[in-house]
Amino acid sequence: MKTILVDLNLCLGCKTCEIQCATKRVSESNNLREAILEIPRPIPRISVQSNGQVSVPIQCRQCKDAPCLDVCPSGAIYREEKEGKIVLNKDRCIGCWMCIMVCPFGAINSYLEIQKADKCDQCIYMDYPVCVDACPTGALKLIEADEKMSEILVKRKRENISEYIKRGAKKDV
Amino acid sequence: MYDLSKKSIDPNVNELLPEAFNLDIKLSWDLHEANLPKCGFGSLGLCCSECWQGPCRVDPFGNGAQAGSCGRTGISMITENFSKQVMAGLIPFLDKARNSELNKEYINLSGWLNAGMSNLPERLLQKIFEIAKKVLRLYSDYEEILELRSIDIDSNKITIVIVGLFSSEKLDLLKKYKNVQVFSLLNEFSYEEIQPLTNYGSQEVILAANIPDLLVIGPGCGMPNLIRLAEKYKVPYIYSDDLTEEIIPKNKNSNYKKLLDFNKPSFKSVVVGDLKDKKVALIAGCNNVRQSQDAGILNLTKELLSRNYSIVTTGCAAVALVKYLSDYKDIYYLGSCYNTGKFIKIYDELKYSSGQVVTFFPELSQPKALAQAVGLAANDIQTYIFPMAPIAENLAFTKLLTSVNKKLKISTKGFEDKEVFEQIL
Q1: Chain A residues within 8 A (CB-CB) of chain B?
Q2: Pick from A117, A142, B266, B342: CA 20 to 30 A from residue A88's CA?
Q3: Domains along chain A?
């Protein structure tokens, strides 16, 4: 299954992904000039957060064992079978906010005016998610999760080993 | 990627594009594509890098920050950004205002612009229009109008191409040589003996065809990409201040490629008497890489001609018309883009006649052209700007603009769109 990989070293926190997501995927008009005047105001399904040093674009991680899917009482949230993405059907949403309460990433939005939740479906049925296409530095990439995952894990283990050794050596000295 | 259109209708450009692609040479269209999508905050004018507390931005969807670190709101930011573009565009025109009261006024305002004039967006815009009005009037004298003649590149002569402004002393230096021919790259010159080679959007073609034996670069609308291209194509270049006799090349570049010839008879210069009681439209401005090059200018002109307008044209837009039109009936030439202000005098003489007088910038991109548009509108001439102008994305700002000056209209659509005609003509 394809998933979005975030390279933290490349994210500049420009929020281009947010604006493109809100305009192309959330708004009715599909056009920035009109989108900013819509009511309710479109809320991007991706959100760039920062701790002051590193900025991270956060969007739905399409969990394998998704808490939002388990908890939704009206069946508004379901897993699309072909692509395996978790999708929210607004027509069935009753605005109970249970999904928002359980999502560990804070990736689900609430529209208080219309009592509906909204979430990222990783631009299901599109070639590329809008945020990936929009990212000017390539910090967001669409990868084949299973293939890339082992590569990332090995890399991370190696990096951490050298870090452990460095720290340990310092203590000994 | 989205938001792309056909690159150009200029056959010389279209011939060059695949060639450049094969040589891995990046032209402005490639550079533009690599920049898409353009930053949404910038498109709406909602970012400010005025001070070192910044950069700050305002969230257009209303969820995040609604003011910068100092409290500047969105409307202040965009007004300030727009004003700075206009002020920058007016600088080349300040030559005629040296040591005058107007020059002091300009310096005063640019000082205040940095020091918090943007707290009063409406007042700031009023000031900008006032200054642009006076500056453009300095250029309104239309006694000497130049001709746009046919260009004949002599393949046996050494070709020197000038980009941007150039002093008359340096020009005399070049004129001494019998085997040297001098052209201006773009239509931003005021010497009659130097004719423009092309217009803004296709300036890179001149280099790709190896036409110049020497490129002389001065302040003007030459793209910074020209220098990179000159290095790729091994065309020697020099900054206009450094031009001396020793630098003039002795031999012709052997890779010279002849460009396709367009129809090139000369335009008539304006005779105001001819325009009395007619509908008159000024077509001015540059090219904009957001739109198909020249398509907007050409479509608009054809549409206006079919509605019995007389066309007056300046600058790069004029060069576009020379390229494609074969019939020059009802088309008049006013000079390089520095001469757009002359249209004010024409308007003054025509405004009590029965025809309609209107100005179009169908493919505006450079601040110099924006300043002209603002100056014409400030002088009471109905003015339309027609790129997908970044600031036009922000409706709050376009409303403010209309409240300050009713004559300036900025469209969000290009002239490829037929609806636009119906709305305004």
Answers
A1: 14-16, 19-20, 22-23, 32-33, 35-37, 41-44, 133-134, 136
A2: A142
A3: 60-121 (3.30.70.20)
